[in-house]
Amino acid sequence: MITLKEFQKIFKDADFEEADLRDFYRSVRKTTVLLLLGKRSLTEIFQHEEKCQWPILQKIDDPDLPLYRGADKALLDAFIKSIENEKTLRKQKKQLEKVKYWSALQGIIEERAELYRSIFSFCRKDDLLCEAVAERYKRIADRKTKKRRAAWGIGIGAGAAAGAAAIWYISKKEKK
Fold first, then answer.
1. How far apart are CA 79 and CA 107, in angstroms?
2. Which stretches of 73-97 are DSSP H helices?
3. Could you give the CA distance from residue 142 to residue 148 in angstroms, rounded to a whole number?
4. Does the N terminus or the C terminus of the chain have fewer Cβ atoms within 10 A?
5. Minimal CA–CA distance to 73: which of 126, 118, 27?
């Protein structure tokens, strides 16, 4: 995978803040990891796309920009088309049902993630690292879910016990 410095060199002639490019670069990598987790991470993927990627993507949708010199023509065309598809989808957001909109956006993000893998020169080592990080995220999320369920079980158990005690007390009181 290309390094952050190599990535920033590509954008040296473009008018972007260094912090924005850094956030974009890291967001692409994190999106790749989160996509491996599946549906449980969609909210976070959408947030990353909205906050870190979309502001940059809107500014680089012109294939004649200097940063695209020497780029693979087919890859560039697919990348620009994905940006145009997202622009069109975002314009139609109010007319579409929520489920259709978010499903379409998910499809665009997944398609673009594959393009990022080529653009950012992901190798087998990068794939293995992303899979390992995704597995760690999954274990952490599973632990949190297990703790939350246990807390709910305790809460429900305590509530049921209190309810049973109240019913017992009322029934004893009525018998007198």
1. 14
2. 73-91
3. 10
4. C
5. 118
pLDDT string in tens for the chain (176-residue length): 888 888 888 888 778 889 999 999 999 999 999 999 888 889 999 999 999 999 999 999 888 888 888 888 999 999 999 999 999 999 999 999 999 999 999 999 999 999 998 888 888 898 898 899 989 988 988 888 887 777 666 666 666 666 666 676 777 766 65
**Chain CA centroid to CA 130, Å:** 14
Domain ranges across the chain: 4-175
Give the Cβ contact number of residue 108 at 10 Å.
19
3-state secondary structure 149-176: HHHHHHHHHHHHHHHHHHHHHHHHHHHC
Question: What is the end-to-end Cα distance of the chain in Å, rounded?
Answer: 79
Q: Which of 1, 71, 74 is nearest to 33 (CA)?
A: 1
* Residue at token pair 């909210």: 43
Per-residue tokens: 55: 């502001």
Amino acid at 30: K
Question: 25: exposed, middle or buried (C-beta count within 10 Å: 0-12, 13-18, 19+)?
Answer: buried
